[in-house]
């Protein structure tokens, strides 16, 4: 729970109005009272809601957006969705980068947004380290995660990672494949990665297919990771297909296998998760589970702005995904 002025007032045995005056440096209190209240506020990790103050004084309409990497092949669609909604509602956005699983950069990004007095925060494809999540909550402004379910009761809008992996694996099974690898998953990523592994494993189990731990190949969702996995792992496995953790992984796998004259889909089948624009630019076109990244961005910004403007509570939701047939799966 976020720390409030009432919480501080209760511990200090002062009225909320006195606490508010102290934290606003408004005067009308003793130095002893000031020191006591500020000490309690610091001990509780209280952060004054400058965004709310900005809204009252200047009708501030700025949201902060924390993101991992602007060069990821799906981030552009999410950004476009956010920008469309932000522009339509007369808001503006401040964009900050927080690295990949980098707790220190996350902290600096949050501090910057707090200093800039944003009215709310969107977090794209990031899972905050625990102390940073506590810091976020204590900022006392609304926030929402996009493209990830952080599993900490925080509001989010995303695709269902379990279901995407399940449906992708199920599609391969229905095409006759029994020996299916899963390539490119980051084992250290506790939300997206773990849910996709569970979905993949559940599909195998539901169809009475024995899966092997070695069939799940670690990676980082990048082209290079898929390329290396194809050369060093897939070529040494007795599998006929792989579910790829991203489009970039899928393309890396296809090109890596081509080096040893394994043709797609004649000799090996590939199903990717994401369905970004590159999935249809490449030949052969990828079979893929397509996420609606634009709508994730649009609906996320819409929900946050509605909370800022109308005090509506934020609710989590999954955006529907779709299966797109391409040219990388053979029916055996």
TrEMBL record:
InterPro entries per record: HTH_LacI, Lambda_DNA-bd_dom_sf, Peripla_BP/Lac1_sug-bd_dom, Peripla_BP_I
This protein's record includes keyword DNA-binding: yes
UniProt feature coiled coil, ranges: none
Top-level division of the source organism's lineage: Bacteria
SUPFAM superfamilies, sorted: lambda repressor-like DNA-binding domains (SSF47413), Periplasmic binding protein-like I (SSF53822)
GO terms of molecular function: DNA-binding transcription factor activity; transcription cis-regulatory region binding
SMART domains named among the record's database cross-references: HTH_LACI (SM00354)
Domain HTH lacI-type: 3-57
Keyword 4Fe-4S: no
Keyword list, A-Z: DNA-binding, Transcription, Transcription regulation
Name recorded for this polypeptide: HTH lacI-type domain-containing protein
Species annotation: Staphylococcus haemolyticus (strain JCSC1435)
